[in-house]
Design goal:
By secondary structure, the chain is α+β, with helices and mostly antiparallel strands. It has helices spanning 2-36, 40-48, 121-173, 187-212, and strands spanning 56-62, 68-73, 90-94, 97-106, 109-119. A 5-stranded antiparallel beta sheet has the order 2-1-5-4-3.
């Protein structure tokens, strides 16, 4: 689940970045003429089309001097705060948001910069869902492991402990008539049979020695 989750999150991020890059290039191309004439109204109208992209929280168009020519805030977003100063082109993940800076170019010339502030709540929900799934599966695996280990203890540990107690009894009391209880025909059962045979030989030897004396 962890591997699938990480893979899905990476695919989601990669897909989102490609889509945002394309959107920024389209909006930037539409704003090129507005930058040529420092037309704030035209730049603002271009950004207003982002209203149909609810994931865009804020946007801005900067000129060559890095001053904002126009800005946009999604309805319901506070007007204060504005866009940050243009930084290095690319993507910056900040908490549950993504900052996108893309150049606005015409041929080899850079006319300005476009900025998006993107809501990543969908990505956050995806991560949370995988975390919850991982916790559920891990809890289930631990419960299965506990049940399995309990059964394993009864099947393996108990016969071995019984064999150890019998060996201690023989060692401390010289009671060669004691026998370990065989509970299965597996390797442990085979070991118990050989141990009991050894005790039987020792018991017979002790009786012979006693009769001779």
């Amino acid at each position: 689940v962890t591997l699938f989750g990480v893979s899905d999150v990476r695919r989601f991020r990669s897909s989102s970045e490609r889509d945002l890059q394309t959107l920024a290039d389209v909006v930037g191309a539409s704003a090129a003429s507005a930058l040529d004439f420092d037309d704030e109204a035209a730049a603002a109208k271009t950004l207003a089309a982002l209203e149909h992209k609810p994931v865009i929280l804020r946007a801005a168009i900067y000129g060559k001097d890095n001053k904002a020519l126009a800005s946009y805030a999604r309805p319901g977003q506070p007007a204060a705060g504005g866009a940050p100063a243009p930084g290095r082109d690319g993507f910056r993940y900040v908490n549950s948001q993504l900052q996108v800076f893309r150049p606005i170019e015409r041929g080899p010339d850079r006319l300005g910069t476009i900025f998006f502030l993107v809501d990543l709540s969908d990505l956050h929900e995806l991560v949370v869902s995988y975390v919850i799934s991982g916790i559920i599966i891990l809890t289930g695996a631990l419960m299965v492991a506990f049940i399995f280990s309990s059964r394993l203890q009864r099947a393996i540990s108990k016969p071995i402990l019984d064999l150890a107690r019998t060996a201690r009894l023989v060692s401390e009391q010289k009671n060669y008539s004691a026998r370990a209880e065989k509970q299965s025909d597996d390797e442990i059962g085979f070991l118990i049979d050989r141990f009991n045979e050894m005790l039987g030989q020792m018991e017979r030897h002790e009786k012979e020695m006693t009769e001779k004396n």
